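Lecture 7 notes: from sequence to structure.
We start with the chain below.
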Amino acid sequence: MSVLPGGCSTREGAGRGEPFRLAGPPMLSRSTVDRDEAVRTDARRLAERWPGAKLVLVDPRGRTPVRTLGGVEGRAPLSGWGDPGASSGGGGDYALSFQDTAGFGPTPPERAVLLGESGDDVYWALRVDERADRDDPSWADLRAVGALLGDTDAGLLTAAVALLNWHDAAGFCSACGSPTRRVKAGWARDCPACGREEYPRTDPAVICLVHDEEGVNGEHVLLARQAVWPAERYSVLAGFVEAGESLEACVAREIAEEVGVAVRGVRYLGSQPWPLPRSLMVGFAAVASRETPLQPRDGEIEEAHWVHRDEVRAALAAGGSVPGLILPGRASIARQMLEGWANASG
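Predicted structure tokens for the same chain:
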């Protein structure tokens, strides 16, 4: 049995008596690009990597030009709230529409960031002013197409969005308040006034699939929804890690705060970057009793329910939703968690 990135197994689901795993690699964890760390401080080598490189443009809403492939011509990018495709396999329906760097000058603009290289191709990213209409189907974001891109393109767009979002929020030194500048091909910023150097910020968050106590993997999963989500859209519980807190402690605290349930048997499943704006989602599984009354946190959780495995399987088989239940889109690690659990024996 081989193991894929993120702690997932190549098997469709855990066998009887085995704890479930992720159904497949989290969609935004896929990457094939060498990030070229050794080149970032070499001005000559950076200049050599600009002409003829492939450029990923990203607008202020995190969208980039995409094109359809194969048998999906004419299908518009999707919203990401319960998208089609029950399979946990990744990508291939869309590709990034790279731009030619020649149209942006003979050398890398100061705002360009080096994403890395793969084979003979070098990749850069650049934030551009909004130039596409809101409903223009040729521009899409990670939620819409992250799971529909191939491995290389998914990794490129995830890294580009993460880096550019950080730069947008890191224009001033956190020590002295002076303006900072991009260095190391966009992978750091320094302060000319005080010399402080800062690196891209990532905020860890836990996301946990809680199942009941029936058998190894239970027969019911705890799903909840926020008021701001589309009607009938549910997911597993998540929350940000606080200062001085371990990941496991955060799991227990967040679930107790959000639905009033105590958990045990917390175990790691895998992780996925979620640069919206700058999170790292760390996936866990845990066990809780269905006898404990659920107490959704006022103002944060609209509804919370225990859902039987058969209903989750039906939603997955239907492409991600059935009446009353819309599952997370495939770009989220939550989808791989739910698929892995649903395909496992209870």
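Points to note: The chain has two domains: 3-26+202-343, 37-169. The longest strand covers residues 264-274.
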